[in-house]
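INTERNAL AUDIT FORM
Audit reference: QA-55
Scope: verify that the stored structure record matches its stored sequence.
Auditor: D.O.
Record contents follow.
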Amino acid sequence: MIRKMSAANISWGSPRIVGDLHKLGIDVAKSTVEKYRVRSRKPSSPTWKAFLNNHVRDLVSIDFFVVPTVRNKVLFVLVVLAHHRRRVVHFNVTEHPTAQWAGQQIIEAFSWDTAPKYLLRDRDAIYGSQFQQRVQSMGIEDVLSAPRSPWQNAFVERVIGSIRRDCLDHVVVLNDHHLKRILTGYFNYYHRWRTHLSLGMDGPESRSVQSPDLGKVVQLPEVG
C-alpha cells in the first residue's frame, strides 16, 4: 500500500503517507514509509504538461504559419485556438504582420467578458510591446514557451499540421481573399465534422451518433 500510494502521488512525502495510513487505521513509522515508498526520478514541481491539463478550460494558444501564393508572395496566417474542445476561435490573414495587427486579432477573437485567463505563445518578435499591452489590458496573462521548444505549444502546432495535411497541401492559393475563403470552409469542416482522437473521436462541436437505421448514408464534399 505504501508503494501504491507513493507511486500515485509523486509529490507526497513520508509524513503525508503516514498520516493517510493512520486515517485508514494502519499505524506505521515514518522510517518504514521511507524504506518502501517509491522515489520518482521526476521533479516534484508541476510539469509543463500538468499546467496545460490543469488550465485547459482557461487557456488559448496562438501561432503564425506562412502560405506561399501562386505569384510567390508569402501570406501570414494567425490562428487562435481554445484548448478546451480544440476550437479555432479566430483566424486572419495578412501580408505584413505587426504587433499592433496581432494585438487587434486578440480583441476581435474575444469580447471583454469572454477573454481567457492564459494566452500561450512563443517568443517571436512579432509579439512586441503593443501586442503585450493589448493582451494585458484585457486581463489576460501571457505564458511564454521556452526558446526553440515548439512541443510546449503542441495543440496549436498540431492544428496547423492538420490544416496543411487536410487542406493546403492540395490547393494552390491565389491571394489573401482566396486563402480566407479556403480556410473558412476548412474550419467549418474541422469544427462540425472532423473527428479528433483527443476528444474521444468527437468534434469540437459535438454531434450525436447517427446510425444507418436513421436513413441512407450520403457522401457530401467538403473543402472542395
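Auditor finding: record pair retrieved intact. Residues 2-43 form one domain.
Action required: none
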